[in-house]
Amino acid sequence: MSNFGNLLLAGITSGAIYAVFAACLAIWFRVANVLNLAIGDFAMIGAIGTAELDQYAHLPLVLAILVPLVASGLIAWGFDWLVLHPALDSGRGHSGIVSVFFYTFALSFVLEGAARLLFGTDVHAAPALWAGPALSFGSLHVERAGILVLGLAVVVGGLAAGYLYFTMSGKAATACGESVVGSKVVGIDAHRLRRQIFVTTAVVAALFGVVESPLTGFTFSSGPTISLIGVVAAGFAGFRRPGRAVVAGLLIGLAESFLGGYVSTSYNEILLYTLLAVVIMIRPGVLGLATAH
Amino acid sequence: MVALSDEAPVQPVLAAADIAVWYGKFQAVESASFEIGPGEFVSLVGPNGHGKSSLAGALAGVVARKGDVRVNGRRIPSANPIAAIRAGLVLVPERRHLYPNMSVQDNILLGRYSRTAKRLARNAWAEVVGVLDLFPELADRLAQRAGTLSGGQQQMVALARGLAAQPEVLVLDEPCLGLSESVTARVYEALVKLSATDVSVLLVEENPSRALQVSTRVLHVNQGTIVEVA
Fold first, then answer.
1. According to the per-residue pLDDT averaged within each range, which of A115-119, A228-232, B133-137, B211-215 is highest?
2. Could you give the CA distance from residue A183 to residue A175 in angstroms, rounded to a whole number?
3. Which of A213, A276, B114, B164 is least surrounded by Cβ atoms within 10 Å, i.e. has the fewest?
4. Nearest Cα residue to B215 out of B8, B41, B25, B34
5. Neighbours of B166 (CB within 10 A)
6. Contact B217, B223 (CB under 8 A)
């Protein structure tokens, strides 16, 4: 029973991580109709950047966290300015959207390559924000970082839901993904909203990288795996529904945990790619071909 | 320049001069000039492919243009729909372009976005709920997804969304395109109600006899040029 409980807690914790990345993907897809395949790489920047600045540059922890977050925001803003804006707003319509899918893929490669050059291939972890041994409740054990991850996931999820469902700006963001012409005729600045959400989700991903890295550790190549899990979870939610993406992320985390605990951890990747195949079959728009009219 | 009629006030709400629209090397609108006075209901008629919708899009800033467009004397830059809306010119586009997976309420609410962008949706609704007076049948369907409505109901939502912006000039582009005769009649009932309001309307309509039911003036477009006034 304790094994089940611990696997459940571990599954919820890793599921919360997946849930947040899935929600970030879904929110941006909701406004832009394109998947951001570099979302995991922003988490990598947050985690490795903080670790390096803390351990080697000896910056105060707050600064060591803030610098990578700001850097992630600036990279996202620059990418939007240099690539996304010309690609999505040039009037090329459908082909523009397909191109952008590959552009975010390319951004992932660039960030991965730059991280390898700058930080090497070692595993990095940002300092624990809540240091100490795992908390025990009877026979159940939960890492403190896991509690932080869960708490942050709840806060971010709540803020995202509040923004999308209760503010005019959030509704406008959704409208951009629903109809390009429809958003223009009511005066929505689609580019501005898209950029704001792209930058915000990049910073949130970086923050999650900082918080979760004591649990998982990060290398220069951790980003694509995180992005892929996010894509799978968001795919089950039709890419547009952050709330359902969160649930799907949690379920994937639980499935991974129980599969690893009761069968073997070596099946985790098989599980992930099987789920991806299912997503591609039931949601062929996964490649960014689904577009607003 | 097609000027206002003798009865119309001197100061036009909408003044368009020498409007030209190009798509690459193809010229859709050659040189269109006209004015609309306060509260006027003007129709723009003509065959398909002669530039009516291009002209409507150019006025509203969703299509790039040459020439001068002014709303109450305020110049609207080309290809800038936000400036057009802020000046009071709102387009209800051909084929409606609603947000199909959003509720009817959200669709109407977003019509007011240009003035409520930083507000909570709940507070903004109070400013637009009045448009339901013109379309009472939508009141029971506010929570329904717009994409699940019939074509006629969707057109009502598109009109309500346009009116939610509280426009000075409403440009309606082919509101009955693809609708059955009975549904078209229902849409025209709504347009008759609209013609009784203070809003100036430019109706783009392929069918002249239909346009005459509601219009105070009819402009005829031929080969991208406004050639006559009925």
1. A115-119
2. 6
3. A276
4. B41
5. 17
6. no
Place of tokens 């019939």: B150
C-alpha A181/C-alpha B175 separation (Å) is 15
For B68, phi then psi, to 5°, come to -110, 130
The reported pLDDT for the residue numbered A278 is 81
Interface with chain A: mutation pick from B78, B82, B107, B110, highest number of A CBs within 10 Å: B110
ipTM, interface predicted TM-score of the complex: 0.88
Residue B204 confidence (pLDDT)? 94
Decide if B121 and A171 are in contact by the 8 Å CB cutoff: yes
Residue B76, token pair as written in the block: 């609207």
**pLDDT for res B7:** 54
d(CA A256, CA A235): 17
Distance CA B60, CA B92 (A): 9
Tokens of B227: 């050639």
**Gap from A222 CA to chain B (nearest CA, Å):** 35
Tell me how far CA of residue B16 lies from CA of A87, A186, A187, B36, B76, in angstroms.
32, 21, 21, 9, 10
The answer to whether B62 contacts A240, with C-beta atoms less than 8 Å apart, is: no
Query: B16 - beta bridge partners?
Result: B34, B69
- Tokens at residue A198, please? 């792209």
Tell the residue number behind the tokens 């006030």, with chain if given: B9
pLDDT at A279: 75
Burial of B155 (0-12, 13-18, 19+ CB in 10 A): buried
DSSP notation for A227-272: HHHHHHHHHHTTTT-HHHHHHHHHHHHHHHHHHHHHT-GGGHHHHH
User: What count of residues does chain B have?
Assistant: 230
Cα B31-B191-B11 angle, rounded to 5 deg: 50
Which of B84, B106, B108 lies closest to B167 in space, CA to CA? B84
What is residue B1's predicted lDDT score, i.e. its pLDDT? 52
Beta pairing partners, B91: B171
Given a contact cutoff of 8 angstroms between Cβ atoms, the answer to whether A163 and A169 are in contact is yes
Give B223's DSSP letter: T
For residue B153, give the H/E element and its range: helix B151-164
Considering only CB atoms, which chain A residues are within 8 Å of B167?
A: none
Report pLDDT for A126: 93
* In the predicted structure, residue B4 carries a pLDDT above the cut 60: no
Q: What pairs with residue B15 in β-bridges?
A: B35, B70
On average, the pLDDT of chain A sits at: 88
Which residues does residue B222 pair with via DSSP β-bridges, in sequence order? B225
Chain B residues touching A186 at Cβ < 8 A:
85, 110-111, 113-114, 161, 165
Vertex A212: Cα angle to A207 and A218 (nearest 5): 95
CA atoms within 13 A on the CB side of A104: 33
